[in-house]
Known about the structure:
Strands 1-2 form a two-stranded antiparallel sheet. The N and C termini lie far apart (about 115 Å). It folds into four domains: about 100 residues, no CATH class; about 110 residues, no CATH class; about 160 residues, Tetracycline Repressor, domain 2, CATH 1.10.357.50; about 120 residues, no CATH class. By secondary structure, the chain is mostly helical.
Amino acid sequence: INELIQKRQLLEAFASIKYLEDETIAERDAEKYKDNPQEFVRKSKDVDLLYNSITNMIQSIVVGTLEQPTVEDTMLNSLVILIAHEEAAHPNTGNAAGPGSDLLGTPRKWREEWREAINESARKRVQRVPMASKEEESFWLDLHLGFLQKQLSEDLLKIKLSVKKCYPEEYQVCDMYVDAFHNAIASHLQDLSQRPLEFNELYTLLDWVANIYHSELFLGHPDLKPEVKTENLSLLLTPADWDKLKNDYITLAKGKIKSYFGNILRLEVTEKWEKEVHPEVKENLYHSSLSFDIQTIIGEHMKISGAISRSLGTKTLELCLAELHEFIPRFGEEFVAWSTAQDSPVFAPYFTAYINSFHDLVVGALSALCAFWFKPPEQADGWVPLASTSASLIITSAISEFIFFQPLLKKILTKDWILMTERPDSLASAVSQFSEHLQHMREPMGQELLRDVHKYVVREYIMQVIKPRRKMNGETRQQVSEKMNQEARILNNMLIGQGSDSDWLLPAIHHIANIIGEKKKDKIKEYVKELCQDYPDIR
């Protein structure tokens, strides 16, 4: 009988074992072994061992089905007949053999063994898929999942075309194999998810689960339909494992985004500021790639994470905005600090270019976010004030530190200034050199900033004049008054000529100059009154 089993002549072997089993049962019932119970135990054990040998062969045949280049139709057909014969010979009465009792006449449950053999086959097929180490291949996970996808697609196609026809419909052989492969893959992916994965590896795994597994690239391939059904499959990863992967992804994405923004700043410093390369001019506007670079980074990360799940896309978006909110003021501080140290001629052009760029960033990113959220701009919760505030931070930093005006402003009322050794148009010239670049700034920001420059220069000028200093005699006061009026006219004319509409600032320096140059108290009171009329907020 063992020889028949080894030759896979299982139907003949089963018939012989069944004959031996029936004979032993009959002899037991006739109490033939009453005086020799050991002989009964030996024969019962022989029957059990022979049945187990067939069980092992069934498992071997099923596990080996996908290992062979061609399917052995005859063998699988005989396997189905064998299972049917066994089920008929040992009907399941529900009375399982108790501990210590013999197994003669009890169901061998070969159909269940067949199912388990399919599961074992799937496990082995998945485990044998090539997987290089991270040290051997940096894209080890992409390659591994690609091999897994290719091999199992071929297996499922083989099952559909060659294995299915060997079994009756009741066996639902395609469903059995699909479930088996699904569970084997799920177990394998769970093991992979416990490894310390890098950012790109996390993305590869998340993307494969979310976008490839059920797609036409794998289980949903047209060649596998309609036999391969995926509708009722369980989740590949448990919710806890899935959430862990997404949280790890966000954690690593934070560092990656911060690094990207840091690289942007580094390249601006080394390739533009230090080399004093002037920004491009496009449509009469100074242009910087800053907005494009930032939008590209945010857009790419929103795209890939949003394709995995909407919640991951939202978390990534929130992360990008948080990092951007930190980056922009840092960028502005670095820019102003660099210009303070260098007194570079490209500060004003790049200052203008960056304001343009931040405006483009607000508009461009807002459009992208609204498209992502499917909302009109006015419903893009939180982004508009956040983006606008961020974009204005660099303006605020620069306005409070108009470093190229400071040296000239500090000369006011010094000895050289009073003695006219400084040209009266020095300050106006310095302001002009900056403000002329504002014509290359996008409106209305250019006009608004020109107003700020005008207001800043007038305010700082007056603050320098009214600082407590040593007393001046009448002649000196007259000289100061004349110099102030002269500089004010030059300065105001230049700013108005460049487009400033802040007419209300024009008399401010003149009022102070008149007060300084006047000796008579009554006239001083009149000048003070005129000053208060023009600027009622003066206390």
